[in-house]
Design goal:
The protein has 357 residues and is an alpha+beta fold. The protein has eleven helices and ten strands. The structure holds phenylalanine.
Length: 357
């Protein structure tokens, strides 16, 4: 049997030469694993005379401790060396030129949608979504448009080809079907906005066959017309970044609200953009009203218990007014020059604290 000194020298040399954790583990197993050299010697202790055992026992234990310590020390050293090597190789050259400015820009519609989400999130509204291809039920029937009612025609609806025996699907003509989808989930109170694309067969300076709307819906047990007015006036103030909003609610008709109104705000033109709060002109901004009891009932709520308001407005038009674009059509023509002129930096997020635009 090798002398303990020889054994210790042998393992120390191996440990000092080990260059990774795997080799260290192999040395540990060879010396102190179940069948390791030192473990086998420990097992022999039982057969020794008490005198021999008293010498060999502590000697073997001492050897074990020293090899264990040596293994740990070598492991630490290897880890330090690896870290130092990484620090040298992963150095960042801070003298390199900074990254180039991003080339793309955010479309004004995206910018305005983000501004809307920020403003309404601050008032406690969540964002909801629905499909662009809708069925007749969600787009019309549940919204209290009677079957065959002329109001359905005023929307210049695009109909999809009907599958056998089914009512044809439509491209949604407004975001109001998201009211239905949200209420039919059956949970109240509700406070959502639903931005998205809508479609109507129309094409001129201020109409395109696809445009964007944002819907708003609040349902609970006590929300009334006063809340509707306050909420929308606060919204206009935040969106147009002014404290002076003068609004007027003109009676109107929508099948899904009662009473219904259109909201106008006082404004004057400054160049192509508008200044809200002063001047002697009024512009229509949105449609709104108290959700019709029939709609609340169609969605499974009791209109004797639940009530609330809804509103809907054109996002593209808001962008035109705020940022002074005279024509809607270029919004949807991929013209790089238009985007370069009217687009927004993709890195500047709209926020109420740092400013919306
Ligand atoms: N959906 C209506 C439209 O497209 C707008 C609206 C929404 C009016 C909600 C009242 C309430 O004209």
């Amino acid at each position: 049997m090798a002398s303990l000194e020889t054994l210790e020298a042998h393992y120390s040399a191996q440990i000092n030469a080990a260059s990774d954790e795997a080799s260290l583990e192999a040395i540990r197993l060879a010396s102190m694993g179940k069948k390791g050299e030192i473990s086998l010697m420990m097992r022999e202790l039982g057969k020794m005379s008490p005198d021999d055992r008293q010498v060999m026992g502590p000697a073997l234990n001492g050897l074990k401790t020293r090899i264990t310590d040596a293994l740990a020390a070598r492991k630490n050293l290897l880890e330090d060396e690896a870290l130092n090597a990484r620090l040298v190789s992963e150095r960042v050259d801070v003298t390199l030129p900074v990254a180039r400015e991003p080339q793309g820009s955010l479309h004004p519609v995206n910018q305005v949608m983000e501004e809307l989400a920020v403003i309404f999130a601050d008032m406690g509204f969540a964002v909801a979504e629905g499909p662009d291809v809708e069925d007749d039920f969600h787009n019309f029937t549940a919204l209290n448009f009677p079957e065959g009612h002329p109001a359905r025609d005023t929307h210049d609806t695009f109909f999809m080809e009907a599958k056998d025996g089914e009512t044809p699907k439509v491209l949604r003509t407004h975001t109001s079907p998201v009211q239905i989808r949200t209420m039919m989930q059956g949970k109240a109170p509700i406070r959502i906005i639903a931005p998205g694309r809508v479609y109507r067969c129309d094409w001129d300076q201020t109409h395109t066959p696809m445009f964007h709307q944002v819907e708003g819906l609040v349902i609970d047990k006590e929300t009334h017309m006063g809340h509707l007015k306050g909420c929308l006036i606060d919204f206009i103030a935040a969106f147009f970044e002014t404290d002076e909003v003068e609004a007027r609610f003109r009676p109107h008709h929508f099948p899904f609200t009662e009473p219904s109104a259109e909201m106008d705000v006082r404004y004057e033109r400054v160049g192509d953009a508008v200044k809200v709060g002063s001047g002697d002109k009024w512009m229509e901004i949105l449609g709104c009203g108290m959700v019709h009891p029939n709609v609340i009932r169609n969605c499974g709520f009791d209109p004797e218990v639940y009530q609330g308001f809804a509103f809907g407005m054109g996002v593209d038009r808001l962008a035109m007014l705020k940022y002074g674009m005279p024509d809607l059509r270029p919004f949807f023509e991929p013209d790089q020059r238009w985007l370069a002129h009217y687009g927004f930096s993709p890195l500047l997020q709209a926020s109420l604290a740092s400013g919306l635009s």
